[in-house]
Amino acid sequence: MNPLHIYGIFLRNIILIRRSVGRIFGLFFFSTFELFLWGFMTLWLRDLAGKDPRVDFVFLLLTGLIFWHLFIRAQQSFSISFLEDVWSRNIMNFFATPVTRKEFIAGLALISIVQGFLSFFYITLLATVFYALNIWTLGFYVVPFFVNIFVFGWALGLIAIGLLLRFGPAFEILAFFIPMVFLPFSAVYYPVSVLPDGIQQIAFFLPTMHLFEGMRAIFAQETFPLVHALWATGLNIVYFICGLGFFAWMIRVARKKGLIARLLQD
Amino acid sequence: MCQHGILYTITLQCVDRQLSVPVLLRVKNLTKTYGKFTAVDHISFEVKEGEVLGLLGPNGAGKSTTIHMLLSLLEPTEGTIEIFGKNLATDREEILQNMNFATSYSMLPHNLTPLENLKVSALLYGVKSWKEKANSLLEEFNLGAFKNARTGSLSSGEQMRLVLAKAFLNNPKLLLLDEPTSSLDPAVARDLRQKIFYKMEENGGTIMWTSHNMREIEAMCDRVIFLAHGKIVANDTPENLKKAFQENDLEEIFIAIAQQPLSSL
């Protein structure tokens, strides 16, 4: 074996990692994410063990998982549809068409809805067949749940696309994993009360936290969690407007700095 | 458009005819700077309806930057671009609806078939009869046999033909071509030049063409603009330029301009 050959392969990858914020982020993110998620989960299970026999863990965890996957699909379909044009080096062709920003966002939202629901109904069917899960016990709450899950996904998708435009494919990891950042703080698999006080205050500003807390409230009390639904909707309106503004700003920056053509070279 | 394109003969009658036709593209004082670097330096020019304008210059002269500004991919630092009598900064969508472009640097997605690619592009340009248009262009550009193959499996010549077919989807009044034949062998390049020429004759459109192939520019263009260090250093018919520079062909003029230091411009 020639050590120079091995060093050549090693060096090539080190250079790539050093130049890519996304890769450096990936190095540390997943271990931190897993630590928080399963740490909070374990705390909740330890506190509940033997205290409340009415709690149906399977039902709660699976419902959380199904809706969380809908959120991931909503966000990823939105961002990855844009990345497809970057990967296929079609971005210049696309931006030179008369398509407006609104049309672009509407097109991505549409594909996100189609893919999101396809995935949602598939996984719901599987959960019904294998675990007798009836997600429709959420009743009318599914409507604000669906709307808010998609809108928050799009808001994050717009930010991910904006960052991709500004910083190039080095940030493409965001298109895939941005929702993961919010998972430990969204109270998907455990109640928000499990989180430390400071983190609970941050979690309060996540629409997903309100949605999943609302879901648990329905299962526990069978009443419509209006306050959670309103908070989620209000926060989403703010985030979606911010996402639109950020995206428009990044488009302007990209046009000013010649970043659209540069996406072909990265 | 003048008929001399394929025949390699240039007549000044074409230019005389241009004097009476309306201006399609008007660029005034166009400038693009990146920090202290000036990529395009206060250039002004006009292109008349039906004209084929060649944009020449050495690497880094500002050709692609100019084309990108005309396509609204890049925001000028200074200056205005008027196309079809409208300001590109304010009427972007309306202008782009009637323009198109092709470059050898940006192919169509490899994971779609040529037919799918043209259908999608036709929709993005708002072409109502998109299915028919896509099919007819594939036949015109001799891609009918491959229309259901993966675009990535086509040769570079076939892919470039597809990019050009895309450029004619909306019957553009103004077509921007950025080195459309740079990666092609001479036979395929000539075939494509003929295709472009006949299509534009059919549409009555205007072309702005960048290339490093001087023979191609001489054959296709009514007028040539030479850029160097972001500035226009010559703007005339190929015949007049040869007289002015006392050279036998555009290639010699190109080399002379490329070797000029910045201070002499």
**What is the first-to-last residue Cα distance of chain A?**
33 Å
Order of helices and strands of chain A: HHHHHHHHHHH
Q: Let me know the largest β-sheet of chain A.
A: none
- Helix fraction of chain A by DSSP (H/I, runs of at least 4): over 70%
Total number of strands of chain A: 0
Proportion in β-strands of chain A: under 5%
Number of strands of chain B: 10
Mean pLDDT score of chain A, rounded? 86
Mean of all residue-level pLDDT scores of chain B: 87
N→C terminal distance of chain B: 32 Å
Number of helices of chain A: 11
Structural class of chain A: mainly alpha
Q: What share of residues of chain B is helical?
A: 25-40%
Notes on the protein architecture:
The complex is a heterodimer of chains A (266) and B (265). Chain A has 266 residues and is an all-alpha fold. Chain A has helices at residues 3-19, 21-48, 57-87, 91-95, 101-131, 142-167, 172-182, 197-203, 207-221, 226-257, 259-262. In chain A, helix 1 crosses helix 2 (21-48), helix 2 packs parallel to helix 7 (172-182) and helix 6 (142-167) runs parallel beside helix 10. In chain A, 36% of the residues are buried. With 265 residues, chain B is an alpha/beta fold. Chain B has 10 helices and 10 strands. In chain B, the strands form 2 sheets. A 6-stranded mixed β-sheet of chain B has the order 6-7-8-3-9-10, with helices on both faces. Chain B has a 4-stranded antiparallel β-sheet with strand order 2-1-4-5, covered by helices on one side. In chain B, helix 4 (114-124) crosses helix 5. The radius of gyration of chain B is 18 Å and the shape is globular. In chain B, 48% of the residues are buried. Chain A binds chain B through residues 84-85, 88-100, 252, 255-258, 260-261, 264, and chain B through 32, 34, 64-65, 68, 71-75, 92-97, 99-101, 103, 105-111, 121, 124-126, 166.
